[in-house]
Amino acid sequence: MSKKLIGAWLTCCAVAAPNAGAAEFVCQPDVSPAQYSRHEQRLVDRFWQESLIYLEQYLQALETPTGRCLDSAEATIQTYDSVTGGKQSRCIMRYRDIELLAKHLRAILAEPDKAKACFDPQKNYDAFPLYTPSRAVQRLSRVSRWLDRPLLTDYFRGLGGDIGAAGLELNENFVAVTARTDASVHFSRDVSIKGLPTLWSSVGWIPFYAENPDAGADRFRGGYLYAEVMGPWGNLRIKEIDGETVGAEIGMTVQLFNTSYPYHYHHPQEIYMTLTRPQCIDQNQYMVMHWDNEAFEQDRRDDGWTVNIDGSGGRWEKWFANQDPAHEWLTYFERNAIHAFHALEGCNQSIENSGLVTVWARSTAQDNQQSTRLCKNANGGTLMHPGERATCELRDWQP
Question: What rounded mean pLDDT belongs to the chain?
């Protein structure tokens, strides 16, 4: 290299260097500085390090080319397109919200010490209850034992009935269910409970539908959990990076076998990465279809759309696809996309057959309405099965 080129390179780097690592992080207002003992700080650091690995691996999976995509992973965006009769997919990084999510994750990974100021182990979190699945899960990590969250086994034992029985079945077998995973295809490190036991045992778990009578069958209501690692209600709560709203909400979900998550929808876009290794091809099925898909009927209201779904006569079966960690592993749900997770048919017969474990995320967790809304059956009651006629009352979202 000539002296002139060397001089130009040094000038370039000298100018760029002061700006490197200059991102400004603004935490959510409920993140307060905490004082820890030396022992406690080591525990918090361990929790933080495994959280960083999870986020780094998530970003890597999004950006690694798969399928027909040269610059990112290819995601299914409709399992059934009424025009083509097949599924529809898109390179996930082509979406602006995913570009921003990836940008913010890169900023966190570039300056973890700054981002750590927004990390809260949620030991004394009082916005809503957070749980650890069981004593066996708690024993996986000193961090989990220090956090000493209430146990879901106790919660569901107190709840009783069919909901309580399903909750006990899932949480007493939580380690077995979440360990029946294969992250080797799309992750360079194991992001499951096998590879990150501190994270999975220390993050706060939520029995999301246990007390919601509109959420379908009792077995599903007791057999569904989610946890949030990053996001407005998770451990890493960042409001803004360099003045941009951080929409990333990243965590994990677990659904018990022999359950069906009814048709539902919401304003924020959602991304799922399947981790469960199925024992048969149709063990875990899912569907996602745009609300204006021609397979549905749509009626305009003043504040949105009423979407009528008729899955009777076996129609629903062509809408659903089989999930597994190697092939149908990544899905992206656009705003108000109608989707469901169905693990009733197939070979889901025992706890050894596991359930459905996913890496879960939303990309716009700070705009519009965040609530997940369930579709109803045609008579306005609780929807139990995708073969029923259903009605979804979608609300307009503000751009």
Answer: 93
